[in-house]
Design brief:
By secondary structure, the chain is an alpha/beta fold. The chain is 45% helix and 13% strand. The strands form three sheets. The protein has an eight-stranded mixed β-barrel with strand order 2-3-5-6-7-8-10-11, surrounded by four helices. Strands 1-9 form a two-stranded antiparallel ribbon. Strand 2, helix 3 and strand 3 form a beta-alpha-beta unit.
């Protein structure tokens, strides 16, 4: 971290990078630290990484099996930024890392000068529900003041923490660096009761490097240009000041009775099958280096948006990533262009059909039983695995969702339309699906909806 992350929206000016001098202090300060006490790094401290979309250049995969074999015990994965960006790789990386034996975590990159703190916390908490569980505590990545005074920034931080605790039931970790905390947060000690993840790029960690009244660090980000087998390009390197048992204890499920916990529970049937799918994806990625988008990821997000539990923007980024990854996997970077185009067109056809079915479902006045559909999709995936004896055999696909919409909403047979070639790829399919998902009404949690009598298939266009 410690540089403005990549975003999908274009920038008009290039972000300034935070220099080593800003991290370590002035030359005089660095010289003075030579004679100071150094925070001892325990011999049993655990190594870990933090990643974002930067670590997927050209849609390349993170080989989580190699990352684990390299000795990395945990991974913080960027989830959100502000109120308008969701890392499209978050859910997949989180679940794939967990299946590889790595303790997953997440972080939210704060934009305090642009958004209300509680809105940012809500945006982050909703996305957390699609990640692996159990996981490390939520993280506030605070490294920009964006024009706020120290008092305003303290107030913003306090409200964000209050909201995230309400939504997730967990105390967050605070990520920052010495200069920022001392100069932009006025070195307040108010937040020292929360775990500290400190960025300080050096071989050692002096006592004086720890700001804000903290007595010790929980995580130390020691470098931003590390090299780890399985990750393309440089990556942030971290140490956890604890052992395996303590790291495991720090990793918990989002508790029931909270917004994030209840959302995670509702999506659990799909998350369970995503784990099996992730194992297969890990094997493919280990062999090919190509990121494999998991279908269950997309449908977990879709059901979350329909249920009003997840921001609609997450659906757009997930869908766009699947199209991009299909392009890369099929030679879109200079190989077989026609094959890549066909793969992307097929995905667009599927999204077009899904959007059409959902629009029809809404027009019929139906309410979508999100919890039931999540459970049924999970059962279908599990049944496919048992029948075929392979974790990849029961992958959730568009056909299953279309069938369920037909059963529960009496919509026409969109699977037949796909098979007959009646559905043409609509370049606006993702946007239409997003709008249909936002317009859909969900049965209240715990409610049930009886399957409807399917409508007769529409007459094929002449």
């Amino acid at each position: 971290m410690l540089s403005l992350p990549w975003r999908r929206s274009a920038r008009k000016t290039a972000p300034a990078r935070i220099t080593a001098a800003a991290l370590l202090g002035s030359a005089a300060t660095v010289a003075a630290l030579v004679a100071t006490d150094v925070v001892p790094v325990p011999s049993w401290a655990l190594s870990g990484v933090d990643v974002a979309s930067h670590q997927h250049p050209g849609d390349s995969a993170i080989d989580w099996q190699q990352v684990k074999a390299n000795g990395q015990s945990f991974a913080f994965i960027k989830a959100t930024e502000g109120t308008g960006y969701t890392n499209p790789y978050f859910s997949g990386d989180s679940i794939k890392a967990k299946e590889a034996g790595i303790t997953p975590g997440s972080y939210h990159y704060a934009r305090p000068g642009q958004n209300d703190p509680r809105s940012e916390a809500r945006f982050y908490a909703a996305t957390l529900a699609t990640g692996a569980q159990p996981s490390l505590p939520p993280v506030l990545d605070l490294e920009e003041d964006e024009g706020l005074s120290p008092q305003q920034l303290q107030d913003w931080t306090r409200e964000w923490i209050d909201e995230i605790k309400t939504l997730t039931g967990r105390d967050p970790i605070i990520y920052t660096y010495k200069w920022f905390w001392e100069n932009r947060m006025a070195n307040t000690t108010e937040f020292s009761k929360y775990p500290l993840w400190l960025a300080y790029y050096s071989d050692t960690l002096p006592d004086e490097a720890i700001p804000g009244g903290w007595k010790y660090v929980t995580f130390w980000q020691k470098a931003d240009k590390g090299s780890v087998d399985g990750i393309v390009g440089p990556v942030d390197m971290n140490e956890y000041f604890g052992d395996d048992a303590q790291l495991k204890a720090l990793s918990e499920d989002l508790p029931s009775g909270t917004v994030a916990g209840d959302t995670a529970n509702a999506l659990e049937p799909v998350r369970q099958v995503a784990g099996a799918e992730a194992n297969v994806a890990n094997e493919i990625e280990h062999a090919t280096g190509v990121d494999v988008p998991m279908a269950s990821d997309f449908f977990m997000v879709l059901l979350g948006v329909i249920g009003g539990r997840l921001p609609a923007e997450a659906l757009l980024t997930q869908g766009a990533t699947q199209i991009e990854n299909a392009n890369a996997a099929n030679g879109g970077d200079g190989g077989d262009v026609s094959r890549a185009t066909a793969a992307a067109q097929n995905i667009l056809r599927a999204y077009t059909a899904l959007a059409g079915a959902l629009e029809e479902f809404n027009a019929n006045g139906n309410k979508i039983p999100v919890d039931q559909l999540s459970s049924v999709l999970g059962q279908q995936k599990a049944a496919g695995v048992a029948a075929e004896g392979s974790a990849g055999a029961g992958t959730i696909n568009v056909s299953q969702v279309l069938t369920l919409l037909q059963q529960y909403g009496g919509v026409s047979d969109w699977n037949a339309r796909l098979r007959n070639g009646e559905v043409k790829p609509d370049p606006d399919a993702l946007q239409k699906l997003d709008e249909a998902a936002k317009a859909a009404s969900a049965v209240e949690q715990g409610g049930a909806a009886a399957p409807a009598t399917p409508a007769a298939p529409a007459t094929p266009a002449q």
